[in-house]
Amino acid sequence: ALMRQLVLGNQIVIGTVNASRKHFELAVADLDKAMKLANSPLQRIITHRFSYTRFDEALFHHAADEIKAVVEWA
Question: What residues make up the domain containing 47?
Fold first, then answer.
């Protein structure tokens, strides 16, 4: 049921397998730099942000203008 929901809902689960904490930190730093660029494609593609406490909204209630929703953990 979960895999079906992910596929049919065009949803993803992100994680790492063979990367250390340092690799993850470097990737986050690179993404942070990209997000701060004035006309970054990342700025335009992320249309909705949700606190992790509202993850159900991000997964199950999509706005008509939504491109990508982000669940924020901090």
Answer: 2-72
